[in-house]
DNA sequence: AAGTTTGTTAAGAAAAAATTTAACAAAATG
DNA sequence: CATTTTGTTAAATTTTTTCTTAACAAACTT
């Protein structure tokens, strides 16, 4: 009856793993990561550590592809190199704490967005202010400049807020407001 | 001196606008939106409302491209249709409050991630539990199953947290913890 | 230091995505 | 109801991205 032999159990275990690997790989893909990198991270999630040759074997892609995927995953903080004395192969390990990957990915993304857009806004405001403060310019143009200026100025509230959000995630302060909880359902 | 005529002022104003449009379009692109959709949203950000023909003119792309871009922007909550009586052209308006676009985009993305991954985790845990509770299976396999089970179980803390984050953004509760502030610098 | 193993980079091939062209459908006007 | 205007969808093209092949560089062994 319900009892399994070892071969069936191994298949069941692999099925369970593949289920989660598929889901993670699909959502990673939503995060601007290539399919290869997504599958690689999802696979590494179930492994302690891997070297490039083990990745080839598991994913079935070339060494070059693994090399670039691993670097991309390192850049967004999903994978770290681990130094193993005695082996000349590079070995890597996946960050398994999703709070850490969340922090790494979004803080990086948001900081980039804030600084890029805020720079543009500052520059634009300077130009617009010159128009607004110039008496000789037609009212129609000055009014348009004023409208844009006010809108851009309002947007700064958002960018400052996003910056604070990043800081509170980085510091862990946010978990005082929204604690990590083990919900039982 | 330093005084501008109207033509120079108009150029200055357009330069200021283009600066911000460029920055927004570039970051939108980071958010999984096509270049066309990114440029379109950034352009609409400075307009009250637009119809498809005005978009063509401004962006210099085909009507089909605008149609699909607009729909994509509607899906992620960046653009809304606005009903203008008397005109048979469809008119649209950009959401100009970045708190709203933030909420719409990330809540949608995170909900999708949580439900997809949590579904896979639940299913995998059920399978793994069957292995763990089966006395007849080899210890080696059971131990691996147990390790995976514990890791997946731990990941649920993150998914529940992400769900709470979404709820607190949707409800506005998060702004009690991280207020919207007009910082002067 | 020569040879071997391992990892990276650059150029090319394959695959995927974005955009346009063109055919179609829907709605409004006369 | 025929005609015109507007918007959508499907097929084809262009562009971009991803992946592989192959040449190269770096590091370890002996």
Uncertain stretches of 5 or more adjacent residues of chain A: none
Number of domains of chain A: 2
Shape of chain A: elongated
CATH architecture of the largest domain in chain A: Orthogonal Bundle
Class of secondary structure makeup of chain A: mainly alpha
Tell me the distance between the termini of chain A.
29 Å
Tell me how many strands of chain A there are: 3
Based on CA atoms alone, the radius of gyration of chain A comes out at 25 Å
Number of helices of chain A: 7
The CATH H-level superfamily of the largest domain in chain A is Winged helix-like DNA-binding domain superfamily/Winged helix DNA-binding domain
What is the multimeric organization of the chains shown?
A: homodimer
> Major sheet of chain A: size, sense and barrel closure?
3 strands, antiparallel
CATH class of the largest domain in chain A: Mainly Alpha
Percent helix of chain A, as a range, is: 55-70%
List keywords for this structure.
7 helices; three-stranded antiparallel β-sheet; Arc Repressor Mutant, subunit A; DNA-binding (chains A, B); homodimer; WH-like_DNA-bd_sf (chains A, B); mainly alpha; DNA-binding; 185 residues; 3 strands; transcription (chains A, B); HTH-GbsR_regulator (chains A, B)
